[in-house]
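Dear colleague,

As promised, here are the two records you asked about, laid out in our usual form so they can be pasted straight into your sheet.

NAME FIELD: protein one
SEQUENCE, THEN STRUCTURE:
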Amino acid sequence: MQVGARNPQLNRHGELIHLLSTEGLPKAVLTQILDTAGSFLSVNDREVKKVPLLRGKSVFNLFFENSTRTRTTFEIAAKRLSADVINLDIARSSTAKGETLLDTIANLSAMHADMFVVRHAESGAPYLIAQHVAPHVRVVNAGDGRHAHPTQGLLDMYTIRHYKRDFSGLVVAIVGDIVHSRVARSDIHALTTLGAAEVRAVGPRTLVPGDLRAMGVRVCHDMAEGVRDADVIIMLRLQNERMSGALLPSAGEYFQSFGLTDDKLALAKSDAIVMHPGPINRGVEIDSSVADGGQSVILPQVTFGIAVRMAVMSIIAGNDA
């Protein structure tokens, strides 16, 4: 985004109308999403898990990449808001016949779409869509290339706040394949805005971009240094599908150096929480004893993700362009 340009996610009043990235969002907007998500958690405990906030609205899930947690929780979230949900089967859609992304969006918009939830392999695809939809249509980025995964970042922030209450004073270590991780980027922007005391990027030199230091991130190429006295440890999987060339000697050697084991976790604070956006590769980036242990909050992250995505969709649907 150019300096001085209006953030395309916000209307002229500074209110959220699309969610494309955590980058550039003010602390007040991030906090509004987290607070709203908290109000939706109780919906999970109701006999009828529905609120009418998106009744009559059509939400189109467009997942051009595979997904389990994100796609399912978006669908659950939209249905709990009483929206009509359409899951487009990309492999069997006209995109397989050569239809362009914008032509696909134009045709779906003609079917009276109100919101697009988009996961795409190309960075910037949700931004492109947001630039070409009608003013009343909303766009949510469910992950674009290596760029951003804002709802994952927000559910991570909700999880941290739930267990730690406040971001000030927190040391957060993000460990693993950071160079290919859109989750890491979204987490870093959100943590910085919300006031975390220190954000550490931990991993081998081939998988940690050096430019993170310019963002105030502490870069660590030693696992012990990276997790020592941390309050929060966010583990990332090795994204082999995005790698070109031999960036690592072997998965076994990677686990020995950067896999989270009980011994390495003991270097963090005694009440540190362990997070992971999934899918987990056990024995590669995390040991099963840690993933299933008492300090793991990996499954609560998934539960919180429903409430966070409900919050995002309800907020952007309620604001004028």
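NAME FIELD: protein two
SEQUENCE, THEN STRUCTURE:
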Amino acid sequence: MPPPPESAPLPATGLLLTGGGARAAYQVGVLEAIADLRLAAGAGTQGNPFAVITGTSAGAINAAALACGSDDFDATVRRIADVWQGFRTEQVYRADSLAMLDAGARWRLLLGVGQLLRKWLRLAPRSLLDNAPLAELLERMVPLDRLPQLMRDGHLQALAVTASSYSSGEHVTFFDAAAPMEPWVRSQRIAVPGHITHAHLLASSAIPFVFPSTGLDLGGHTEYFGDGSMRQSAPIAAAIHLGAQRILAVGAGRMSEPREAPAPNTFTGYPTMAQIAGHALSSIFLDALAVDVERLRRINQTLALIPPVARQNTSLRPVELLLISPSERIDAIAARHVGALPGAVRRLFGGRDALSGHNEVKGAALASYLLFDQGFTRELMALGRADTLKQRDEVRRFFGWAPS
């Protein structure tokens, strides 16, 4: 399909960045490649190709950082990339031995002795790790005070981040838009308009059990929220509700994992805690996007069967989707970097054996969400760039950019 003429502007383009802790480094590599392709096509060095930006979990942080620099997409992508290229664990969470011992001891006390001891000691552990350093990083990395002016100047149509309420059980999309928009309500899903804050980003990225929940005001009362990937049944929906007619979705895991035959002498005993935790987190972070993409494509196919005249009498419309997701197993990449995890974190999930040897790749699923280490993040960024450049023709068609 040739790009449309310049006299026919493209419909609003949306960006969806999904969750996945440290896996979100992959998204940054994708954005870097898009910036390079855009520059090579002569599409301008300033401005923003995404009118609507949405994100979940760590993807919400990337989305908000990108939105806050929407007047200069290229420079903003480079700034975000600089942060991810130099990531260190201590920028995201505290994992020194004393802190971890304290957290582990509290959990053992509560789980082993029960409610009586809890009342006696007045202990209430809120998470395994303390993400206070992340809050400090967000203050520097995401200047949310710029958003109102950027929207008034037309650089951005809407920003949305999602979080899951432990209080009500609902999945909530918090959005800020340049023009008034009606919030939507679906089964177990609601939208709330208002200004996005750093607290919203902390709530959206609070991996369950790992990081503490965050209290947010909702309708005049406080509810406590955790990672937005939990109970997220329709990750693409927010961008559509906010007016996007074309969406670039960036995943955090392969859309289809081929079933691998067990290797000779594969250990098939009881799973380690790291394996169980990694499997649970993968179910939270990786499954919803694949299901939603399949649903969207099926709807598009159905709409194509309806005559255009009949379709005009409905609110239904096809949505163009470009999906970019890892071509390699991120678990396998993480397995090469588990040694960079703080020792206290490795001990917490079963020690060295839980993340090495026969359990290496399975146990590394958990590590892939917590490996905020530059060796791992740089390799994921390189993969994101490579995967995007493999789809360069599809990317150019999607944005209407001519080849260089």
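A couple of things worth noting about protein two: The radius of gyration is 22 Å. The CA atoms of residues 104 and 348 lie 7 Å apart.

Best,
R.
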